[in-house]
Amino acid sequence: MNILIYGIGGIGGYFGGKLALTDHHITFIARGKQLKAIQENGLKVKSILGDFQCTPDLVTDDLKQVPCPDLVIMGVKSWQLTSAAKQIAPILGENSLVLPLQNGVDNPTKLMEYIDQKQVLSGFCNLISYIESPGVVCHFAFKPTLTFAELDNTNSTRIQKIDAVFHQADIKSIIPKDIHRELWKKFLFITTISAIGGLCRVPIGELRESSYINSLMRSTAHEILSVAKAKQVDLRAEDIEKVFQTISDLDPMSTASTQRDLMAGKPSELETFNGYIVKQAKMHGICVPVNEMLYQCLLPMEKKSRSEYSK
Fold it and tell me: Where are the transmembrane segments (predicted)?
């Protein structure tokens, strides 16, 4: 199988690296120092499960060099997804499939602005990793899992073939009965803690010590549940309780990636999380005052970061 990993950051680097250890033809799309380092020395992955080194069949920043892929795994940030879809669309064949692994619940919709719906899958991953230095990705928490499915949840032959490839690469993959419910469960957790962490600028341990902030987080979660129900997603009140159990179990020094990006002045996934809830709530006539407050308070910072990134 020809597999293209578009974006060799924490996610693309880890899963792409595992796939590059198989006999399948693996291409990395990378940029700048990351591209140069991998071209010269391959990719090194430092992992709590064991370090490994790999060399993909091709690493480039030029899509014209890439053979027609059977599968494209999108490793960019959610706010970069639409642009990435536009760039890869010309190299896709009739049977090419595209799998987004970004945070958020509307990634397939973003892809479908430029890619045929029948070629788009849905998915996400549980993985904490980052680029430690050019050519080096560090995986430092959780046993990685990759959850994916057809948009209509059909257990198709093509899904089974991709699942087999993941297993060959020693990637724990899950095909759920309802991909949309699973996406929203993860979305519920991340959206509940990300923006408020970015606003308060302290780790989760300090957030959960405050009864007032805990109340804000619960309100955030219940507003998300209201939007999910309006969109006929099978998200449940019990999922909120599971989120807060997870929050209570987190290492007190934990921070969300969106929080870290906001604090570092980088473009973040604010629009993907609280911004998405605010916009969907307006479409469905739902009041989400806490998500609106968090979003609007952080939006000027986000706009500034985006402006500086595009220079």
Answer: none
